[in-house]
Amino acid sequence: MEFRQLETFCKIFEERSFSKAARRLGMTQPTASAQIITLEKEIGVKLFDRSGKKVLPTSGGKLFYSYAKKILSMKKESIEALNNYSNVLIGNLYLCASTIPGEYLLPPIIGNFNKNFPNVSVFLKITDTGEVVEFVAKGEDEIGVLGARVDDSRIEYLPFTEDIIVFIAPYNHPLTEKKDLRLEDILEYPFIIREQKSGTLAVFEKKLKEKGYTLKDLKIVARMGSTNAVKEAVRSGVGISIISKKAILNEVKWNVLTILSPQDIEEIHRNFYIILPKNRTLSPAGKKFLAFLRQFGEE
Predict the structure, then answer these.
(1) 110 and 174 in one domain?
(2) Are 105 and 240 part of one and the same domain?
(3) Is residue 84 over pLDDT 70?
């Protein structure tokens, strides 16, 4: 019996899906299935009943889950105890973040952290704001970073750093020549927005509401699931969009995209937040990384 088999079993038990569990663990579904088959042979108990797409734990699987979780918890605690004893950080650190902090803020911080603690492997998951909250709340990831607050009693928020959201259009777009540009002028053009759980979209919706508009007033032609997809769609002339200023510095410098600044709307500021699970102690590596994040936020 191996730890990775127990980790795979627990994830399938929690997700009720081989495919979802495999994605969460960064492996293929056949690999996850093979591990469970091997585990079932070793312990002599069938752990799951499979019916089409449904995966349900057997009574034996339910019993085994409680012990598997205890074993994995003891493994983690023993490694942390030994790390503290030797004063050397060793192990894995699991993080998750929404698109902008995940793609533009965390990589250099992780690089600096790795130089100081080379024996810690950092795994960064980039997804939408809603999933970041879920992963941290459930304990799948120790620390999350996102750009919008979500009401959830399972997590706590710490301030991280600020961001500015801007309107963008292709370079030489007709609106770049318009004097006294106003929000209503921008809304006359095809518009690209992010997916429903995006923090960027949530902040933009709030600003629209302040100005007496809703998303229904936009000529939405596409919803994009990532910042890079938004940039490419705008560059290709699909429409205008909103995006973090941090994400388009090079494109503006290279005259690929341009920032539109309507006169009747002030800069759209938002805060990035560090999120932690309530009532759960961070690992030594997690504590060190949190200190790196807070130091970055203060600079």
Answers:
(1) no
(2) no
(3) no
